[in-house]
Amino acid sequence: MDSLLTYADQSLNDVEAAIKNLDDIDESLDNEKTLAMTIDNLIKESDASSSDAKTTPQDDAAPAPKTVNINTSDLDALLGEIDTAESAANNSISDLDSIDENEDKVSI
Amino acid sequence: MKKLILSAIACVLLVLPITALGAKTTAIDPGKLQNLGTTMIDKRTAAIQKYDGLLNQTKYISDATLSKVQGELSRVKGELETLKTKILGETDIDALKADVKSIATNYRVYQVFLPQSAGIISVDRMKTYEVKLTELKSKISIKADELEQAGKDVSAIRNLISTAEGNISAGNGYITTSESKFASMAITDPEGARTLKLDGRTALISAKQSFSEARKNMRDAVQEIKKLAQPSI
Fold this sequence. Notes:
heterodimer; A: mainly alpha; B: mainly alpha; 7 helices
């Protein structure tokens, strides 16, 4: 009879242990669900933030002032040199026109 | 009788000045002809020297053309100096007259050689003008590229550059024509030289007009660049 009672206790302990294990398994299942939900949320947040990012360049392009660093002083200097070259060309034509071929007409 | 006397007096009055004039003609001072001859020669050799110096300063004329033109200037200058020595030693009036006349007719310095030299020098000035315009065109193109990379619309600048490029190309053609005309002028054909001079000058004027257009277009392009380089809001 004692051995029967001992066996019954043992079995009861086993059953309790099995139930506890079962509870643990449920908890872990719950944890996995939570984890999965967390991941979903993270993905959603990530999507949301990435879609926000897509709109950023459009926002940037509109009103922000854009400066192009172009130095034009060399162009102005060359324009000055061109004015001088044009003037020299004009003077050379005037010089050509000033040569009087009548100097070669002599009557003695 | 009165009439006869008056006629005789009139004849005497008419004949006297003619005789005096004849006396004047035969009494030409050789020194005056020598002075006239040396003055004409000095004036020509000074002008030749001036243009020879200017030809030495040219940058864009071919050696062949320079050699031909300066070779003739040197020859004419040398021959005129020899002629000057001859004139200074000459006392015969007829020989002096012929020598002085030959200064103009044999050498055609003002009809051929000076306009030829001045024309070639003008061609060189035009080429200098063209080189500067081409340099500016390249610089404007680089700035246009930079602006385009920064997202600016440079189509107006590109159009101005393209038009200027056409102007420069046309001007270059006129310069080539002009150089050919001036280089072909020769003492052997003075009348032909006159035509060549006029043709060369016309080509120079056309080149100048083309380059002026190019200059205007590129000045406008520079203004466009300045506008686009300013910060946009």
